[in-house]
Amino acid sequence: MLHEAISDTFFIWRKEAGRTVRDQGALIFFILVPLFYPLLYAFIYTEETVREVPAVVVDDANTAMSREFVRRVDATPDVKVVGRTSNMEEAKERMRRAEVYGVIRIPEDFSRTVNRGEQAHVSLYCDMSGLLYYKALLLACTEVSLEMNAELQVERLGSTTVREGEVATAPLRYQDVALFNPTNGFASFLIPAVLMLVLQQTLLLGVGMMNGTARERGTFHTQLISGQGRGTVRLVLGKALCYFMVYALVGIWVLAVVPRLFHLVQIPQATDLLAFMVPYLLACIFFAMTCSILVFQRETCMPIFVFMSLPMLFISGISWPGVAVPPFWEYVSWLLPSTFGINGFVRINTMGALLEDVAFEYVGLWVQAVVYFLTACATYYYLINESRKKSETLN
Amino acid sequence: MSALRAIWDIVVRECRRMVARPLYLCCMLVAPAVCCLFFTTLMGEGLPKDMPVGVVDEDNTATTREILRNMDAFSQVRLTERYASVSEARRAMQEGKIYAFYYIPEGTTDEVMANRQPVVSFYTNNSLLIAGSLIYRDLRTMSVLANASVGLKTLQAKGVDEHRAMAFLQPVVVDTHALSNPWLNYSVYLNNTILPGILMILIFMMTVFAIGVEIKDGTGKAWLAMADNSMWKALVGKLLPHAAVFFLTVVAHYTYLYGVLHFPCHCGIGPLLLQAAMTVLASQGLGVFFIAVIPTLRLALSACSLWGVVSFSISGFSFPVMAMHPALQMLSNLFPLRHYFLIYVGQTLDGNPLSYVWKSYMALLLFALLPWLVLGRLRKVMLNFDYIP
Hints:
The complex is a heterodimer of chains A (395) and B (389). Chain A is of the alpha/beta class.
């Protein structure tokens, strides 16, 4: 009995592999998209950070000190001063024409105020179309002002030594250490999450397409071994085995080779990553099999699943911080393998976490794998019956 | 007159087809509504606050506790846990419990006493970029303020008034004006492009689906016959109901974002309606182009998927186009969302007159006119094409 069940499962596995290889549409999703899509993505973000954001200066003071301020801002890697204008209107006009993303305005009384021992204000106007522009401008100007402040203070404390001056105004120094993504790169941050999501989404699309085809033609029940009676579980297992085989290979390309090609941060414990991937792939496969109940036609998998990639990416808590996700959506996110998968992968791969550090996600994925296996069996049972009825009415 | 009559008949036929398939209802009304509610409630907070941050205080004296109190007071982060060592804190970060931690090394107090200016370190997890940057920005402000507060106390003790003391501590101050989005609201920043982007995907798909399914089911000839074999009449009749529904969907989005949630909108209703109309027409135009060039429903939908999903990355709202490879900068022009984004920034966010964004409108117009190039081919496909599933 057991022997028969196993050989049936492998028979279905072989049949499904054959169907997959012959189905051009499924091959696109299973092979072509995971192969090339990550490359395109990594290429888009390959520059990692924004450098030399163009800014224009309105220097009403035009003194040695104000020119020094501008020169230092220009010298930072983040900002590039592309011009000086004499009035604010002209500067704003250049911003409207998107030639510059920021305006630095130094007031007419800048040096006089500082020399009088009062606070001088430099105004920075930022275009808010992209937060990275804002960040670069703000950072550069703040750094320069801090630097000049320290120097001015030391100058004024003339009588004492330089060190003493520094210490009197700043008893502590602060140092920032960026862990796990030292260059603050956009690619190192977003790509790992996208890679994991690609695995789930292509499975949803591929499995959805194959089941949609069988459903449309009313041939679903013919995939059973005996053509009638029991065998749903064998069908589910055999098919899952086929998808797992394909995705074991695809997964290595997507998660191990692609990050290497683009020099992304990659510090996983290989065995932990492998151990984590097993429940992730299983959960994704059974999730995709369950969701295929929504696909009535070969092509409709795309309108249904493609646009969902974006909500799934955001709900995972990588780009939008997890603590800021409202509780309701957090519970919803637990229904998706991608949530646990992305979080676990980012921690193992990018942050060097061990399997025990991602225990919550790991267990979550196993629970999903089991639950979605059961729902997948129910789905396939329903699909078999539906297709049997359909073929009866056709004949 | 007969042309109008023919178009009207096709409109009625298309409406019947739309009602008959739940897919249309899902993708034209349900999906946009769900996405809109999802994204706006997900980012309801606008700017994430109270992110958990840990502390490793190896010194643990009255002075270091005072330093920590100062930090807590000046920053928007929440000091949640204390850890005995850096490796323990790093572990907590890997487990996802904290986003950053302070590290006060042993001997800090002695060094403060000895005026040796010790270093307090701040470790941020930048594999979560948004959280990392927010906390980093907070640290910068906080360290300036915390130091200033110490300096201020010292100077005040010496009898210097606050005004002069602050002028001494910070002679040059940078006042930042974040134009149009002064709250740095992420919801405003992201949703104004994400939601139209999702709508565009759905419009591409529904346009391709509505035409492609005629090819697949072999009903193309009948459809064309209703329009006296005139492809453009057939297309107008078919896409008119789609356009109407999607236009209303976009307008409903705008009403919700600008009317209910009060996102910044510095242009009038007229420009918004123009944006909505051009979004729908440009997306439909690209959809028709895809299905005419690739008359296999499945492949055309795949092309839509690729175009739609890539447009989020390449439109430049998250990662600036300026910083991309030159080839990609050129390529970005082929995505309607890129032009939509430029129009949104120019008109809605910054309130510039039409003359600053006319180029982007022309681009969208070109997308809307794309079907004109392929009318002949599409007609041929409808009349004689063997469908390959």
